Amino acid sequence: MEQIWVVKASGEKELFDPAKAKNALRRAGMSGKESDEALKLLHSKLRQNITTTKIYGLLYDIIEEMRPEVSHRYNLKRALLNIGPEGYEFEDFVGKLLTLQGYRTELRQNVQGKCVSHEIDVIAAKNHEAYAVECKFHNQPGAKCRIQTALYVYARYLDLAAGAKLGRCRNFTKPWLITNTKFSDDVVAYAECMDIPLLGWHYPFKEGLESMIDRTKCYPVTVINMGNDVLRRLLSKKIVTIFDIPESADRLAELSGVPHATAKEIVEHAAYAR
Predict the structure, then answer these.
(1) How far apart, in whole angstroms, are the C-alpha atoms of residue 50 and residue 45?
(2) In this structure, are 177 and 249 located in the same domain?
(3) Can you give the chain as a three-state secondary structure string?
(4) What tens digit of pLDDT does each residue of 95-109 get?
(5) Distance between CA 5 and CA 13 in Å, rounded?
(6) Do 96 and 209 have their domain in common?
(7) Cα–Cα distance between 181 and 215 in angstroms, integer?
(8) Are residues 198 and 97 in the same domain?
(9) Range of the domain at 212
(10) Distance CA 110, CA 118 (A)
(11) Which of 32, 55, 74 is the last residue of a domain?
């Protein structure tokens, strides 16, 4: 097999790794035989210096043709980048995801600490624990959650803890940093040292954000291919996950104002993911 150089989102070049592509296909739910077949189809379309974005699109089209019912799982990483452009939609998504995990959640609450007031993206409570959740959203491939965010999260938690001792706010068990991408090594080291829970792409190992989403089937609406205008309409109506999509195309069209034919396609794709 000819060696193909690919261009990453950062501009760096690396050799195309069939094993990495196959892992993504298997994670999406394709069998080993189906994955090998998909890779053969992909290889016939590869060219030198092709971008990773182009490869992603080619593989998605192949999956849509072969196994449309698993395309949402392959599309998850990109879908989490597209849930913006601001962070509010990601906060809404995290709130709904944690609710399905048994947490009682509150969004964007202003809480008085010892020194200043803080807007907490998500308050997540379960049993006798309460977390002050910071949702760090990125909309660019390759972006990582950096150490400055972790330092801010812990400093804020210290002010809230001091405020709780003065009776100014509830007592938070811990802070919790959640991102839609990966964490830098510094963040992981600092979080382990300071006992800050983290949730992100592939972190914790085998219990990362993608695993929680697969387990609960709480997929963002962005796993379904749609135009930006349609997506904005859905998000404006707080349709953030596939569970928020009505099972009736008539109802979705009425609620969001999207054309009925588009609503029908969205409803059909949502049924695959549920």
Answers:
(1) 10
(2) no
(3) CCCCEEECCCCCEEECCHHHHHHHHHHHCCCHHHHHHHHHHHHCCCCCCEEHHHHHHHHHHHHHHHCHHHHHHHCHHHHHHCCCCCCHHHHHHHHHHHHHCCCEEEEEEEEECCCCEEEEEEEEEECCEEEEEEEECCCCCCCEECHHHHHHHHHHHHHHHHHHHCCCCCCCCEEEEEECCEECHHHHHHHHHHCCCEEECCECCCCCHHHHHHHHCCCEHHHCCCCHHHHHHHHHCCCCEHHHCCCCHHHHHHHHCCCHHHHHHHHHHHHHHC
(4) 999 999 999 999 999
(5) 6
(6) yes
(7) 18
(8) yes
(9) 85-216
(10) 5
(11) 74
List strands edge to edge, sheet with 13-15.
13-15, 5-7, 50-51
| pLDDT tens digits, one per residue of 126-148 | 999 999 999 999 998 889 999 99
Question: What is the per-residue pLDDT across 48-61, written as a single tens digit (0 to 9) for each?
Answer: 999 998 999 999 99
User: How far is the C-alpha of 211 from the C-alpha of 200, rounded, in Å?
Assistant: 10
- Residue with the two structure tokens 């592509």: 21
